[in-house]
C-alpha cells in the first residue's frame, strides 16, 4: 500500500447551539479546529487530552458518525465524505470502532456469538455452523473460551465484555480500529491485559489504531506516536519516546507533571497544570492555552500558534517553544 492508512486534513467540527433564525451571532461549540494527522499501516496513533478537548469528536468524525464542518478524512486515499450506500458500508467494514463502555455498546438480548457474527451477517449469509466456527475462532483470538458464545453480555465480566467488543470489531477484518477510551472503564490489571491483547493483534494482523485516551499511562503503554490536543487543536505531535522523555509544549509538560508517576521516588518535571479547560463555545483568543500558561507573552494572547515541525521531527504549536519563523529550530529557551 502506498501512502498512509488514514490521513486527516484540516478537520473542523462546529456545533451550532440553538439561537433564533434572526440571531446574527449564534453560539457555536468549536469542538475541532483544523486538525491534521496521518496513521500508517500497523501504527498506533494516540490522541490524548483533558475532557472536552475534542478527541471524542475526532473519533466520531473518523467513523463518519458526524460530518465535518470543513476538512477531509482519507481512508487509504479515499475521501470518506463522498461515500454513499455501498461505498460507505465498505469503508465502515475497513474501519471499526471499540467503545469505552462495552456493556452499553453490546446488544443485551443477543448472545456473545450472535454479537460477534452480526456485522458479518450484514455482508454475507452464513449458515449456523459457519457462524459458530467464526465466533469460536474470534473468541479464541481475543483470549476467551469458545463456550461463552452462548452467554449474554450480562453474564460476562467487564474485561470479557471488552474482549467481546474487540472480537466483534475484528470480525470484518478491519484495516484500522478507532478505540475511544477503550480501557478507561476497566480495572488497572484488566486494562493492561486488554492493551497487551490489542498490541498482539496488531503484530499478528497489521491493524492500525487510533487510540483515544485521557490516560497518559495507557498512551505510554500502547502508542507509537502521540498527538496532544487542547481545546480542539493538536498542540504537540511526537513519537512516544520523544514526548515522554522531553515534552516541548507547555501543556504537554504540565499534563505529564500532573500524571501519576509509576515510581513515586522520581522527581516531577514541572509545575502541574492549574485551572480548568476553557469553554469551546468561547475559547480564549490567540493561543487557547494562554490563560493557564506560565510562559505566555503578549503575542500569545493575539495570534494562534501554528503547528511547526522541529529539528527532531516532532510538531509543536507554541510561539515561545517552537517559533514559526524558525521552523527547523530548537526550543528557543
Ligand atoms: Fe504558552 Fe504562548 Fe506557547 Fe501558548 S503559545 S503555550 S501561551 S508560550
TrEMBL record:
InterPro entries: AAA+_ATPase, ABC_transp_ATP-bind, ABC_transporter-like_ATP-bd, ABC_transporter-like_CS, Oligopep_ABC_C, P-loop_NTPase. PANTHER family: D,D-DIPEPTIDE TRANSPORT ATP-BINDING PROTEIN DDPF-RELATED, TRANSPORT ATP-BINDING PROTEIN. GO terms for molecular function: ATP binding; ATP hydrolysis activity. The keyword Acetylation does not apply. Residues 6-256 form the ABC transporter domain. It is a peripheral membrane protein. It holds the Pfam family oligo_HPY. One of its GO terms (cellular component) is plasma membrane. This is Dipeptide/oligopeptide ABC transporter ATP-binding protein. The lineage of its organism: Bacteria, Pseudomonadati, Pseudomonadota, Alphaproteobacteria, Hyphomicrobiales. Belongs to the ABC transporter superfamily. GO terms for biological process: peptide transport; transmembrane transport. It is found in: Cell inner membrane. The keyword Nucleotide-binding applies. It comes from the Bacteria. Keywords: ATP-binding, Nucleotide-binding, Plasmid, Transport. Coiled coil: none annotated. SMART domains: AAA.
Amino acid at each position: 500500500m502506498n501512502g498512509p492508512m488514514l490521513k486527516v486534513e484540516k478537520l473542523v467540527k462546529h456545533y451550532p447551539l440553538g439561537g433564533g433564525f434572526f440571531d446574527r451571532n449564534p453560539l457555536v461549540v468549536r469542538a475541532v479546529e483544523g486538525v491534521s494527522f496521518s496513521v500508517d499501516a500497523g501504527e498506533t496513533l494516540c490522541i490524548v487530552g483533558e475532557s472536552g478537548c475534542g478527541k471524542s469528536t475526532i473519533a466520531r468524525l473518523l467513523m463518519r458518525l458526524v460530518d465535518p464542518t470543513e476538512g477531509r478524512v482519507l481512508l487509504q486515499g479515499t475521501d470518506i465524505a463522498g461515500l454513499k450506500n455501498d461505498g460507505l458500508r465498505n469503508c465502515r467494514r475497513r474501519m471499526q470502532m471499540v467503545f469505552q463502555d462495552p456493556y452499553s455498546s453490546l446488544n443485551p438480548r443477543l448472545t456473545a456469538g450472535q454479537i460477534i457474527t452480526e456485522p458479518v451477517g450484514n455482508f454475507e449469509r452464513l449458515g449456523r455452523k459457519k457462524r459458530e466456527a467464526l465466533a469460536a475462532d474470534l473468541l479464541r483470538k481475543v483470549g476467551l473460551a469458545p463456550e461463552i458464545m452462548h452467554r449474554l453480555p450480562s453474564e460476562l465480566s467487564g474485561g470479557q465484555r471488552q474482549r467481546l467488543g474487540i472480537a466483534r470489531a475484528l470480525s470484518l477484518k478491519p484495516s484500522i480500529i478507532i478505540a475511544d477510551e477503550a480501557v478507561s472503564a476497566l480495572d488497572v490489571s484488566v486494562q493492561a491485559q486488554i492493551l497487551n491483547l490489542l498490541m498482539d493483534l496488531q503484530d499478528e494482523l497489521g491493524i492500525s489504531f487510533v487510540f483515544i485516551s485521557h490516560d497518559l499511562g495507557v498512551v505510554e503503554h500502547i502508542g507509537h506516536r502521540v498527538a496532544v490536543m487542547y481545546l480542539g487543536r493538536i498542540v504537540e505531535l511526537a513519537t512516544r519516546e520523544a514526548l515522554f522523555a522531553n515534552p516541548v509544549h507547555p501543556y504537554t509538560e504540565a499534563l505529564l507533571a500532573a500524571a501519576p508517576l509509576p515510581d513515586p521516588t522520581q522527581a516531577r518535571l514541572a509545575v502541574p497544570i492549574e485551572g480548568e479547560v476553557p469553554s469551546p463555545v468561547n475559547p480564549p483568543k490567540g493561543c487557547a492555552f494562554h490563560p493557564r500558561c506560565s510562559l505566555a507573552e503578549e503575542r500569545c494572547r493575539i495570534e494562534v500558534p501554528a503547528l511547526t515541525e522541529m529539528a527532531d521531527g516532532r510538531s509543536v504549536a507554541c510561539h515561545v517553544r517552537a517559533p514559526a519563523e524558525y521552523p527547523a529550530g530548537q526550543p528557543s529557551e
